[in-house]
Amino acid sequence: MNFNTKYLPILMFSTLALGVVLGGMLNFPNAADYLVKNNSKSKLNKLIDFIDNEYVDEINTDSIVNLTVDNILAQLDPHSVYIPPSDQLAALESMKGNFVGIGVNFYMYKDSVAVIKPLENGPSAKAGIKAGDRILYADKTKLYGRKLPNDSLFSKLKGEVGSDIELTIYRKSEGKKLKLKIKRDVIPLKSVDVALMLSNKTGFIKINRFAETTYAEFMAGVSKLKKEGATSLIIDVRDNGGGYMEEAVAIADELLADKQLIVFTKNKNGNIAKTFATKKGSFEKGNIFILINENTASASEILAGAVQDNDRGTIVGRRSFGKGLVQREMDFADGSAVRLTIARYYTPAGRSIQKPYSKGKEAYFNESEARLGNGELYEKDSIKVSDTIKFKTKKGKIVYGGGGIVPDVFVPIEVEHGNEGTAYLMESGIVGNYVFEQLDKSRNNFKGLSFEKFKIKMNETDFYVNSFQKFVFGNGLDLNFGKSKLLVKRYLSAEFARQLYGENYYYEIVLKEDAMIKKVLNQQ
Protein backbone atom coordinates (compact mmCIF):
# COMPACT_ATOMS: atom_id res chain seq x y z
CA MET A 1 0.00 0.00 0.00
CA ASN A 2 1.36 3.45 -0.89
CA PHE A 3 0.70 6.16 1.65
CA ASN A 4 0.72 9.86 0.78
CA THR A 5 4.05 11.07 2.17
CA LYS A 6 2.47 13.81 4.21
CA TYR A 7 0.69 11.12 6.21
CA LEU A 8 3.71 9.20 7.33
CA PRO A 9 3.34 7.55 10.77
CA ILE A 10 3.33 9.90 13.74
CA LEU A 11 6.83 10.86 14.79
CA MET A 12 6.85 10.09 18.49
CA PHE A 13 9.79 12.11 19.85
CA SER A 14 9.69 9.96 22.96
CA THR A 15 9.86 6.75 20.91
CA LEU A 16 11.96 7.87 17.96
CA ALA A 17 14.38 4.99 17.55
CA LEU A 18 12.04 2.07 18.14
CA GLY A 19 11.55 1.25 14.47
CA VAL A 20 15.31 1.15 13.92
CA VAL A 21 15.65 -1.52 16.59
CA LEU A 22 12.58 -3.61 15.84
CA GLY A 23 13.13 -3.58 12.10
CA GLY A 24 16.36 -5.54 12.62
CA MET A 25 14.70 -7.97 15.06
CA LEU A 26 17.75 -8.00 17.25
CA ASN A 27 18.90 -10.19 20.09
CA PHE A 28 22.22 -9.34 21.67
CA PRO A 29 23.94 -9.13 25.05
CA ASN A 30 23.92 -5.84 26.98
CA ALA A 31 27.63 -5.56 27.48
CA ALA A 32 28.68 -6.17 23.88
CA ASP A 33 30.74 -3.05 23.28
CA TYR A 34 33.86 -3.99 21.38
CA LEU A 35 36.08 -1.60 19.43
CA VAL A 36 37.27 -3.13 16.17
CA LYS A 37 40.92 -2.27 15.51
CA ASN A 38 42.93 -3.65 12.64
CA ASN A 39 46.30 -1.98 12.03
CA SER A 40 47.38 -4.30 9.20
CA LYS A 41 46.50 -3.21 5.68
CA SER A 42 44.31 -5.73 3.93
CA LYS A 43 43.75 -6.04 0.23
CA LEU A 44 40.49 -4.15 0.67
CA ASN A 45 42.26 -1.32 2.52
CA LYS A 46 44.83 -1.02 -0.26
CA LEU A 47 42.17 -0.98 -2.93
CA ILE A 48 40.41 1.90 -1.19
CA ASP A 49 43.74 3.74 -0.95
CA PHE A 50 44.38 3.20 -4.68
CA ILE A 51 40.97 4.65 -5.53
CA ASP A 52 41.43 7.53 -3.11
CA ASN A 53 44.86 8.49 -4.41
CA GLU A 54 44.90 7.52 -8.09
CA TYR A 55 41.36 7.24 -9.51
CA VAL A 56 40.64 9.80 -12.27
CA ASP A 57 37.43 11.19 -10.68
CA GLU A 58 36.67 12.33 -7.16
CA ILE A 59 35.01 9.49 -5.27
CA ASN A 60 33.56 9.39 -1.76
CA THR A 61 35.48 6.35 -0.56
CA ASP A 62 33.50 6.25 2.70
CA SER A 63 30.39 5.37 0.72
CA ILE A 64 32.32 2.64 -1.12
CA VAL A 65 33.44 1.15 2.18
CA ASN A 66 29.88 1.15 3.49
CA LEU A 67 28.65 -0.63 0.38
CA THR A 68 31.45 -3.17 0.68
CA VAL A 69 30.65 -3.88 4.31
CA ASP A 70 26.95 -4.27 3.49
CA ASN A 71 27.75 -6.68 0.66
CA ILE A 72 30.03 -8.77 2.85
CA LEU A 73 27.44 -9.05 5.61
CA ALA A 74 24.76 -9.90 3.04
CA GLN A 75 26.63 -13.17 2.44
CA LEU A 76 26.07 -14.19 6.07
CA ASP A 77 22.64 -14.22 7.72
CA PRO A 78 19.78 -11.68 7.72
CA HIS A 79 20.61 -10.42 11.22
CA SER A 80 24.31 -9.66 10.72
CA VAL A 81 24.06 -5.98 9.75
CA TYR A 82 26.08 -2.78 9.48
CA ILE A 83 24.77 0.28 11.34
CA PRO A 84 26.05 3.64 9.99
CA PRO A 85 26.85 6.39 12.52
CA SER A 86 23.65 8.31 11.72
CA ASP A 87 21.49 5.33 12.74
CA GLN A 88 23.65 4.04 15.57
CA LEU A 89 22.89 6.90 17.97
CA ALA A 90 19.13 6.48 17.54
CA ALA A 91 19.39 2.73 18.06
CA LEU A 92 21.49 3.16 21.20
CA GLU A 93 19.00 5.65 22.66
CA SER A 94 16.11 3.28 22.06
CA MET A 95 17.89 0.36 23.70
CA LYS A 96 19.18 2.50 26.56
CA GLY A 97 15.61 3.44 27.35
CA ASN A 98 16.00 7.22 27.55
CA PHE A 99 17.45 10.34 25.95
CA VAL A 100 17.81 14.03 26.82
CA GLY A 101 15.17 16.27 25.28
CA ILE A 102 12.02 18.32 25.84
CA GLY A 103 9.42 15.52 26.06
CA VAL A 104 6.84 15.95 23.32
CA ASN A 105 5.15 13.65 20.81
CA PHE A 106 4.90 15.43 17.46
CA TYR A 107 4.72 15.02 13.73
CA MET A 108 5.12 17.24 10.69
CA TYR A 109 1.69 18.53 9.68
CA LYS A 110 1.45 20.92 6.74
CA ASP A 111 5.14 21.84 7.04
CA SER A 112 4.91 22.68 10.73
CA VAL A 113 5.94 20.80 13.87
CA ALA A 114 2.62 19.94 15.51
CA VAL A 115 2.56 18.78 19.14
CA ILE A 116 0.38 15.71 19.55
CA LYS A 117 0.82 15.50 23.29
CA PRO A 118 3.48 16.62 25.78
CA LEU A 119 4.87 13.90 28.01
CA GLU A 120 3.09 13.93 31.37
CA ASN A 121 5.26 15.71 33.97
CA GLY A 122 7.95 16.20 31.31
CA PRO A 123 9.84 19.44 30.60
CA SER A 124 7.41 20.66 27.92
CA ALA A 125 4.31 19.94 30.01
CA LYS A 126 5.84 21.79 32.98
CA ALA A 127 6.63 24.76 30.73
CA GLY A 128 3.03 24.93 29.48
CA ILE A 129 3.19 23.27 26.03
CA LYS A 130 -0.23 21.90 25.03
CA ALA A 131 -1.54 19.41 22.48
CA GLY A 132 -2.11 21.14 19.16
CA ASP A 133 0.64 23.75 19.63
CA ARG A 134 2.90 24.43 16.63
CA ILE A 135 6.61 24.85 17.32
CA LEU A 136 7.73 27.72 15.11
CA TYR A 137 11.25 28.34 16.39
CA ALA A 138 13.78 26.47 18.52
CA ASP A 139 15.82 29.36 19.91
CA LYS A 140 16.44 31.30 16.67
CA THR A 141 16.14 28.37 14.26
CA LYS A 142 13.02 28.45 12.11
CA LEU A 143 11.22 25.08 12.06
CA TYR A 144 8.07 25.79 10.04
CA GLY A 145 7.67 26.14 6.28
CA ARG A 146 10.74 23.97 5.71
CA LYS A 147 11.18 20.33 4.85
CA LEU A 148 13.67 19.63 7.59
CA PRO A 149 14.92 16.04 7.88
CA ASN A 150 13.93 14.32 11.09
CA ASP A 151 17.46 14.13 12.44
CA SER A 152 17.82 17.91 12.06
CA LEU A 153 14.59 18.47 13.99
CA PHE A 154 15.62 16.13 16.78
CA SER A 155 19.08 17.68 17.07
CA LYS A 156 17.50 21.10 17.62
CA LEU A 157 15.33 19.82 20.45
CA LYS A 158 17.89 17.57 22.14
CA GLY A 159 20.80 18.75 24.26
CA GLU A 160 22.53 18.42 27.60
CA VAL A 161 20.64 17.70 30.82
CA GLY A 162 19.63 20.99 32.43
CA SER A 163 20.31 23.11 29.32
CA ASP A 164 17.69 25.67 28.29
CA ILE A 165 15.91 26.08 24.97
CA GLU A 166 13.44 28.83 24.06
CA LEU A 167 10.53 27.69 21.91
CA THR A 168 8.32 30.06 19.96
CA ILE A 169 4.95 28.42 19.53
CA TYR A 170 1.65 29.20 17.91
CA ARG A 171 -1.39 28.18 19.96
CA LYS A 172 -4.23 27.69 17.52
CA SER A 173 -6.91 27.45 20.21
CA GLU A 174 -6.03 30.97 21.40
CA GLY A 175 -4.80 32.40 18.10
CA LYS A 176 -1.55 33.75 19.52
CA LYS A 177 2.21 33.24 19.65
CA LEU A 178 4.02 32.41 22.87
CA LYS A 179 7.65 32.13 23.90
CA LEU A 180 8.39 29.42 26.45
CA LYS A 181 11.73 28.54 28.02
CA ILE A 182 12.19 24.81 28.60
CA LYS A 183 14.89 23.05 30.60
CA ARG A 184 15.92 19.81 28.91
CA ASP A 185 15.80 16.64 30.98
CA VAL A 186 16.10 12.86 30.70
CA ILE A 187 13.09 11.52 28.76
CA PRO A 188 12.18 7.84 29.24
CA LEU A 189 11.51 5.67 26.20
CA LYS A 190 9.06 3.17 27.62
CA SER A 191 9.40 -0.46 26.60
CA VAL A 192 6.42 -1.51 28.75
CA ASP A 193 3.43 0.31 27.30
CA VAL A 194 0.94 -0.49 30.02
CA ALA A 195 0.23 -2.60 33.09
CA LEU A 196 -3.46 -2.82 33.97
CA MET A 197 -6.12 -5.16 35.35
CA LEU A 198 -8.49 -6.83 32.89
CA SER A 199 -10.60 -8.50 35.58
CA ASN A 200 -10.55 -8.73 39.35
CA LYS A 201 -7.77 -11.35 39.17
CA THR A 202 -6.11 -11.03 35.74
CA GLY A 203 -3.37 -8.51 35.06
CA PHE A 204 -2.06 -7.46 31.64
CA ILE A 205 1.40 -6.21 30.66
CA LYS A 206 2.34 -5.07 27.14
CA ILE A 207 6.07 -5.16 26.26
CA ASN A 208 6.99 -3.46 22.97
CA ARG A 209 10.73 -4.31 22.98
CA PHE A 210 13.49 -5.50 25.34
CA ALA A 211 15.65 -2.50 26.25
CA GLU A 212 17.97 -1.84 29.21
CA THR A 213 15.04 -0.69 31.32
CA THR A 214 12.52 -3.41 30.40
CA TYR A 215 13.07 -5.68 33.40
CA ALA A 216 12.74 -2.76 35.82
CA GLU A 217 9.59 -1.55 34.03
CA PHE A 218 8.17 -5.07 34.07
CA MET A 219 8.83 -5.48 37.79
CA ALA A 220 7.15 -2.15 38.54
CA GLY A 221 4.14 -3.31 36.53
CA VAL A 222 3.97 -6.71 38.23
CA SER A 223 4.24 -5.11 41.67
CA LYS A 224 1.37 -2.75 40.82
CA LEU A 225 -0.82 -5.56 39.47
CA LYS A 226 -0.20 -7.85 42.44
CA LYS A 227 -1.27 -5.06 44.79
CA GLU A 228 -4.45 -4.76 42.73
CA GLY A 229 -5.18 -8.46 43.18
CA ALA A 230 -3.65 -10.13 40.12
CA THR A 231 -3.24 -13.89 40.47
CA SER A 232 -3.05 -14.48 36.70
CA LEU A 233 -0.80 -12.58 34.31
CA ILE A 234 -1.07 -11.95 30.56
CA ILE A 235 2.21 -10.87 28.96
CA ASP A 236 1.67 -9.41 25.48
CA VAL A 237 4.70 -9.60 23.17
CA ARG A 238 2.80 -9.35 19.90
CA ASP A 239 4.80 -7.30 17.37
CA ASN A 240 7.77 -7.27 19.76
CA GLY A 241 10.86 -7.76 17.60
CA GLY A 242 13.23 -8.43 20.49
CA GLY A 243 16.24 -6.60 21.89
CA TYR A 244 18.48 -7.43 24.82
CA MET A 245 18.49 -11.13 25.60
CA GLU A 246 19.34 -10.54 29.28
CA GLU A 247 16.15 -8.56 29.85
CA ALA A 248 13.97 -11.37 28.51
CA VAL A 249 15.92 -13.91 30.58
CA ALA A 250 15.50 -11.81 33.73
CA ILE A 251 11.73 -11.65 33.20
CA ALA A 252 11.56 -15.41 32.58
CA ASP A 253 13.48 -15.87 35.85
CA GLU A 254 10.66 -14.10 37.69
CA LEU A 255 8.17 -16.66 36.35
CA LEU A 256 10.15 -19.90 36.71
CA ALA A 257 11.18 -21.92 39.74
CA ASP A 258 14.76 -22.23 40.94
CA LYS A 259 17.16 -24.14 38.64
CA GLN A 260 14.74 -24.44 35.72
CA LEU A 261 16.56 -23.96 32.40
CA ILE A 262 15.61 -20.73 30.62
CA VAL A 263 17.77 -20.84 27.49
CA PHE A 264 21.12 -22.05 26.22
CA THR A 265 23.41 -20.85 23.44
CA LYS A 266 25.95 -22.65 21.25
CA ASN A 267 28.74 -20.93 19.30
CA LYS A 268 30.80 -22.06 16.27
CA ASN A 269 33.20 -23.97 18.52
CA GLY A 270 30.37 -25.94 20.08
CA ASN A 271 30.69 -24.15 23.42
CA ILE A 272 27.38 -24.22 25.29
CA ALA A 273 26.29 -21.62 27.84
CA LYS A 274 23.19 -22.42 29.90
CA THR A 275 21.10 -19.94 31.88
CA PHE A 276 18.96 -21.18 34.76
CA ALA A 277 16.30 -19.56 36.89
CA THR A 278 17.21 -18.49 40.41
CA LYS A 279 15.26 -18.39 43.66
CA LYS A 280 14.06 -14.81 43.35
CA GLY A 281 10.93 -15.27 41.19
CA SER A 282 8.19 -12.78 42.01
CA PHE A 283 5.44 -14.52 39.99
CA GLU A 284 6.24 -18.23 40.24
CA LYS A 285 2.66 -18.98 41.26
CA GLY A 286 -0.50 -18.22 39.32
CA ASN A 287 -1.46 -18.61 35.69
CA ILE A 288 0.77 -17.20 32.94
CA PHE A 289 -0.35 -16.46 29.37
CA ILE A 290 2.02 -15.20 26.66
CA LEU A 291 0.42 -13.55 23.60
CA ILE A 292 2.41 -13.92 20.36
CA ASN A 293 1.93 -13.34 16.64
CA GLU A 294 3.87 -13.54 13.39
CA ASN A 295 5.94 -10.45 14.34
CA THR A 296 6.99 -11.77 17.74
CA ALA A 297 10.73 -12.39 17.45
CA SER A 298 14.07 -13.00 19.11
CA ALA A 299 14.14 -12.14 22.83
CA SER A 300 10.34 -12.39 22.86
CA GLU A 301 10.64 -15.95 21.58
CA ILE A 302 13.17 -16.76 24.30
CA LEU A 303 10.60 -15.73 26.90
CA ALA A 304 7.78 -17.66 25.20
CA GLY A 305 9.95 -20.74 24.70
CA ALA A 306 11.08 -20.80 28.32
CA VAL A 307 7.49 -20.61 29.56
CA GLN A 308 6.26 -23.24 27.08
CA ASP A 309 9.06 -25.79 27.50
CA ASN A 310 8.87 -25.63 31.29
CA ASP A 311 5.07 -26.04 31.16
CA ARG A 312 4.84 -22.84 33.18
CA GLY A 313 2.08 -21.20 31.15
CA THR A 314 0.02 -21.08 27.96
CA ILE A 315 1.18 -19.56 24.68
CA VAL A 316 -1.74 -17.93 22.85
CA GLY A 317 -1.91 -16.56 19.30
CA ARG A 318 -0.14 -17.42 16.07
CA ARG A 319 3.29 -18.85 15.19
CA SER A 320 6.07 -16.43 16.04
CA PHE A 321 8.62 -15.01 13.59
CA GLY A 322 11.37 -17.61 14.07
CA LYS A 323 14.68 -15.95 15.01
CA GLY A 324 17.10 -18.12 16.95
CA LEU A 325 20.37 -16.24 16.35
CA VAL A 326 22.36 -14.17 18.85
CA GLN A 327 24.18 -10.99 17.79
CA ARG A 328 27.09 -9.14 19.36
CA GLU A 329 27.53 -5.47 18.63
CA MET A 330 31.05 -4.36 17.69
CA ASP A 331 31.82 -0.66 17.32
CA PHE A 332 34.04 1.09 14.80
CA ALA A 333 35.98 4.27 15.61
CA ASP A 334 33.76 6.43 13.37
CA GLY A 335 30.64 5.72 15.44
CA SER A 336 29.28 3.01 13.19
CA ALA A 337 28.90 -0.60 14.28
CA VAL A 338 28.36 -4.12 13.05
CA ARG A 339 25.97 -6.57 14.67
CA LEU A 340 27.43 -9.98 14.00
CA THR A 341 25.73 -13.30 14.68
CA ILE A 342 27.95 -15.19 17.13
CA ALA A 343 25.76 -18.06 18.32
CA ARG A 344 22.43 -19.85 18.08
CA TYR A 345 20.10 -20.08 21.01
CA TYR A 346 17.96 -23.06 22.01
CA THR A 347 14.86 -23.34 24.15
CA PRO A 348 14.98 -25.51 27.31
CA ALA A 349 13.70 -28.56 25.40
CA GLY A 350 16.67 -28.22 23.02
CA ARG A 351 14.94 -26.80 19.95
CA SER A 352 16.23 -24.09 17.64
CA ILE A 353 13.35 -21.95 16.43
CA GLN A 354 15.38 -20.23 13.68
CA LYS A 355 13.54 -20.34 10.35
CA PRO A 356 15.46 -20.91 7.09
CA TYR A 357 17.09 -17.94 5.35
CA SER A 358 18.64 -19.62 2.29
CA LYS A 359 16.33 -17.75 -0.13
CA GLY A 360 17.75 -14.35 0.80
CA LYS A 361 17.00 -11.48 3.16
CA GLU A 362 13.94 -10.11 1.36
CA ALA A 363 12.18 -13.48 1.26
CA TYR A 364 13.17 -14.07 4.88
CA PHE A 365 11.63 -10.90 6.24
CA ASN A 366 8.56 -11.15 3.98
CA GLU A 367 7.84 -14.74 4.95
CA SER A 368 4.76 -13.62 6.88
CA GLU A 369 3.14 -12.84 3.52
CA ALA A 370 3.61 -16.48 2.56
CA ARG A 371 1.89 -17.48 5.80
CA LEU A 372 -1.08 -15.39 4.75
CA GLY A 373 -1.11 -17.08 1.36
CA ASN A 374 -0.81 -20.66 2.62
CA GLY A 375 -3.58 -20.18 5.16
CA GLU A 376 -1.64 -20.59 8.39
CA LEU A 377 -2.86 -17.26 9.77
CA TYR A 378 -6.38 -18.68 9.52
CA GLU A 379 -5.99 -22.35 10.44
CA LYS A 380 -3.58 -23.97 12.90
CA ASP A 381 -3.50 -27.12 10.74
CA SER A 382 -1.87 -25.07 7.96
CA ILE A 383 1.19 -24.22 10.07
CA LYS A 384 4.34 -25.66 8.51
CA VAL A 385 7.69 -25.76 10.31
CA SER A 386 10.77 -26.83 8.40
CA ASP A 387 12.14 -29.03 11.18
CA THR A 388 9.86 -31.98 11.90
CA ILE A 389 12.02 -33.30 14.74
CA LYS A 390 9.85 -33.58 17.83
CA PHE A 391 10.84 -32.24 21.22
CA LYS A 392 9.14 -32.71 24.57
CA THR A 393 8.42 -30.25 27.34
CA LYS A 394 9.07 -31.22 30.97
CA LYS A 395 5.63 -32.81 31.19
CA GLY A 396 5.91 -34.59 27.84
CA LYS A 397 3.98 -32.22 25.57
CA ILE A 398 5.20 -32.35 21.94
CA VAL A 399 6.74 -29.13 20.55
CA TYR A 400 8.62 -28.43 17.32
CA GLY A 401 11.67 -26.42 16.26
CA GLY A 402 12.83 -24.87 13.01
CA GLY A 403 10.50 -21.93 12.49
CA GLY A 404 9.14 -20.03 15.47
CA ILE A 405 7.09 -20.85 18.55
CA VAL A 406 3.82 -22.61 17.72
CA PRO A 407 1.16 -21.49 20.23
CA ASP A 408 -0.69 -23.86 22.53
CA VAL A 409 -3.93 -22.01 21.80
CA PHE A 410 -4.31 -20.77 18.23
CA VAL A 411 -6.20 -17.55 17.44
CA PRO A 412 -6.71 -16.96 13.70
CA ILE A 413 -6.29 -13.51 12.25
CA GLU A 414 -9.79 -13.20 10.77
CA VAL A 415 -11.37 -13.97 14.15
CA GLU A 416 -9.10 -11.42 15.79
CA HIS A 417 -9.67 -8.64 13.29
CA GLY A 418 -12.34 -9.41 10.69
CA ASN A 419 -10.30 -8.17 7.72
CA GLU A 420 -6.53 -8.44 7.87
CA GLY A 421 -5.90 -5.50 5.51
CA THR A 422 -8.07 -3.19 7.59
CA ALA A 423 -6.58 -4.60 10.79
CA TYR A 424 -3.01 -3.80 9.78
CA LEU A 425 -4.10 -0.32 8.71
CA MET A 426 -5.81 0.36 12.04
CA GLU A 427 -2.56 -0.39 13.89
CA SER A 428 -0.51 1.93 11.65
CA GLY A 429 0.51 5.55 12.13
CA ILE A 430 -2.04 6.84 9.63
CA VAL A 431 -4.75 6.42 12.29
CA GLY A 432 -2.89 8.69 14.69
CA ASN A 433 -2.41 11.28 11.95
CA TYR A 434 -6.12 11.27 11.13
CA VAL A 435 -7.16 11.56 14.78
CA PHE A 436 -4.76 14.43 15.39
CA GLU A 437 -6.16 16.32 12.43
CA GLN A 438 -9.72 15.78 13.65
CA LEU A 439 -8.82 17.01 17.11
CA ASP A 440 -7.00 19.95 15.59
CA LYS A 441 -10.25 20.99 13.91
CA SER A 442 -12.58 20.40 16.85
CA ARG A 443 -10.65 19.89 20.09
CA ASN A 444 -13.22 21.97 21.98
CA ASN A 445 -15.87 19.31 21.25
CA PHE A 446 -14.07 17.06 23.75
CA LYS A 447 -13.11 19.71 26.30
CA GLY A 448 -14.12 18.75 29.85
CA LEU A 449 -15.58 15.41 28.70
CA SER A 450 -15.10 12.55 31.17
CA PHE A 451 -13.78 9.26 29.79
CA GLU A 452 -17.11 7.52 30.39
CA LYS A 453 -19.02 10.22 28.52
CA PHE A 454 -16.38 10.14 25.79
CA LYS A 455 -17.03 6.41 25.23
CA ILE A 456 -20.76 7.00 24.99
CA LYS A 457 -20.20 9.85 22.53
CA MET A 458 -17.97 7.72 20.28
CA ASN A 459 -20.29 4.69 20.38
CA GLU A 460 -23.31 6.75 19.36
CA THR A 461 -21.85 8.08 16.09
CA ASP A 462 -20.47 6.70 12.83
CA PHE A 463 -19.22 10.14 11.81
CA TYR A 464 -15.54 9.36 12.36
CA VAL A 465 -15.76 5.94 10.69
CA ASN A 466 -17.26 7.52 7.57
CA SER A 467 -14.83 10.43 7.69
CA PHE A 468 -11.86 8.08 8.05
CA GLN A 469 -13.12 6.04 5.10
CA LYS A 470 -12.96 9.21 2.94
CA PHE A 471 -9.53 10.00 4.39
CA VAL A 472 -8.23 6.56 3.42
CA PHE A 473 -9.68 6.68 -0.10
CA GLY A 474 -8.25 10.18 -0.48
CA ASN A 475 -4.79 8.82 0.23
CA GLY A 476 -5.00 6.15 -2.44
CA LEU A 477 -5.81 3.15 -0.23
CA ASP A 478 -8.41 0.82 -1.69
CA LEU A 479 -9.85 -0.49 1.58
CA ASN A 480 -13.58 -0.59 2.14
CA PHE A 481 -14.71 -0.65 5.76
CA GLY A 482 -18.19 -1.99 4.97
CA LYS A 483 -17.69 -5.27 6.85
CA SER A 484 -15.28 -3.89 9.45
CA LYS A 485 -17.04 -0.86 10.88
CA LEU A 486 -16.95 -2.11 14.46
CA LEU A 487 -13.22 -2.78 14.20
CA VAL A 488 -12.55 0.65 12.70
CA LYS A 489 -14.69 2.41 15.29
CA ARG A 490 -12.91 0.60 18.13
CA TYR A 491 -9.43 1.59 16.97
CA LEU A 492 -10.47 5.16 16.16
CA SER A 493 -12.05 5.53 19.60
CA ALA A 494 -8.92 4.08 21.19
CA GLU A 495 -6.63 6.51 19.37
CA PHE A 496 -8.85 9.47 20.30
CA ALA A 497 -8.64 8.24 23.90
CA ARG A 498 -4.85 7.94 23.75
CA GLN A 499 -4.39 11.50 22.49
CA LEU A 500 -6.99 12.94 24.85
CA TYR A 501 -6.50 10.93 28.04
CA GLY A 502 -3.36 8.78 27.81
CA GLU A 503 -1.94 5.36 26.89
CA ASN A 504 -3.91 3.29 29.43
CA TYR A 505 -7.19 4.46 27.95
CA TYR A 506 -6.13 3.30 24.48
CA TYR A 507 -5.63 -0.23 25.76
CA GLU A 508 -8.79 -0.15 27.86
CA ILE A 509 -10.79 0.27 24.65
CA VAL A 510 -8.75 -1.93 22.29
CA LEU A 511 -8.39 -4.92 24.60
CA LYS A 512 -12.09 -5.16 25.40
CA GLU A 513 -12.81 -6.88 22.06
CA ASP A 514 -9.37 -8.43 21.49
CA ALA A 515 -9.85 -12.07 20.43
CA MET A 516 -6.71 -13.31 22.20
CA ILE A 517 -7.69 -11.57 25.42
CA LYS A 518 -11.19 -13.02 25.16
CA LYS A 519 -9.73 -16.49 24.66
CA VAL A 520 -7.63 -16.14 27.81
CA LEU A 521 -10.40 -14.68 29.97
CA ASN A 522 -12.78 -17.44 28.89
CA GLN A 523 -10.31 -19.98 30.27
CA GLN A 524 -10.19 -18.32 33.70
UniProtKB/TrEMBL annotation:
Residues spanning the signal sequence: none
Domain annotation PDZ: ranges: 98-173
SMART domains cross-referenced by the UniProt entry: PDZ, TSPc
Alphabetized CDD domains for the sequence: cpPDZ_CPP-like, Peptidase_S41_CPP
Top-level lineage group: Bacteria
Any one GO biological process: proteolysis
Gene3D superfamilies to which the protein is assigned, alphabetical: 2-enoyl-CoA Hydratase, Chain A, domain 1, 2.30.42.10, 3.30.750.44
Family (UniProt): Belongs to the peptidase S41A family.
Segments forming domain Tail specific protease: 175-356
SUPFAM superfamilies documented for this protein: ClpP/crotonase, PDZ domain-like
Species of origin: Flavobacterium caseinilyticum
Molecular functions (GO terms): endopeptidase activity; serine-type peptidase activity
Protein name: S41 family peptidase
